[in-house]
Amino acid sequence: MKIGITCYPTYGGSGVVATELGIELAARGHEIHFITYSQPFRLTGREANIHFHEVAVSNYPLFEHPPYDLALATRMAEVAEFYSLDLLHVHYAIPHSVSAILARQMIQAQMLQAIPASTTGRTLPVITTLHGTDITLVGLDRSYLPITRFGIAQSDGVTAISSHLRDRTREAFNITSEIEVIRNFVNCDVYVRKPKLVAAMRPRYATSEEKLLVHLSNFRPVKRVQDVIEVFARVAHAMPARLMLIGDGPDRSTAEFLARRHNVQYRIHFLGKQDNVNELLPLADLMLMPSEMESFGLAALEAMACGVPAIATRVGGVPELIDHDINGLLYEVGDVEAMSTAAIALLSDETRLQTMAKAARKTAQDHFCASRIIPLYEEYYERVVRRTQSG
Ligand code: GMT
Description:
With 391 residues, the chain is an alpha/beta fold. It has 14 helices and 13 strands. Residues 12-15, 17, 92, 131-133, 161, 184, 217-218, 222, 293-298, 316 line the site of ligand GMT.
């Protein structure tokens, strides 16, 4: 199939999923066209079957806010016509679904004059994947709620990354139409613990006597990075330990401040944004993901695939991934005492830690490998295209 994909190309779970999906689909022979304002960060630009179309937004003195959504819609319609795309798959409802719906209308209304009439006037199915904050934070903001509902209702197909997000979307937006659950995935051949690589790299971050913890996020308030530091400080006062903080964002200074307050700043590696997290995650013994909300928790899945269990919060779709005391541990939001007690106990019991690490890898392998999830997207695409053509 020829598939147009739009996402936020910078760091963030939805962009990661969209980019990895494009890479996996391209490897399976599909022709993929990314339509975004910059090249998605996990793309090298040299992948076979993958094309990138930059959305340029013209600025005029009159525009206080240059209209990206309109520039995106125009580019989507142009690319769809030029390359005869079979569908547009957008990630994150706002504004991508609305731009795609506009592109679909432009094509139907034969608004692209440069294109021969024979190719215009067709329908272009639009599939929207909901990732979480597009519903739970942005979408529920009164000023975006009606347009989010419109974007969902007018898409030809809608997927959600967890049952929790599907139910939450239905409830919050009063949506009765079908929402397909297709969960986050990970490439289990790329996200895997390679003992030789771990032996070579781990000494850069921790000695053999030290336990190594990791947190990976965009450092937004919803991630509760302050709880990561609170938990780590308690662990570091109880045993030799270090923490890798991967990512960057608004709460990084808070994390630095708290680290100094607890006098653990020299035990923390502030690594900032990293491209190859698959090489860093397997170095760790334990991941911390104390988020206020996670519709799924891709970061935990990536760690689990590398054999690193997570201590996380019992929120959103996380229980669809983590089984408490089997492949990780779940606690209530903000309960840093329980999380640190659990972390200290687990890290002190090597046998239990190894059992949990194996169970974490097995969960990723059995349920969330790209090889299992990508065919679900392919089947869904075919279903939506068939339905659109017949309807
Ligand atoms: O929270 C983030 O990391 C960013 C956000 C996004 O849309 O970029 O992530 C959401 O999508 C991820 C991929 O589908 C999910 O794994 C995350 O759980 C979800 N984040 C939240 O719900 C807070």
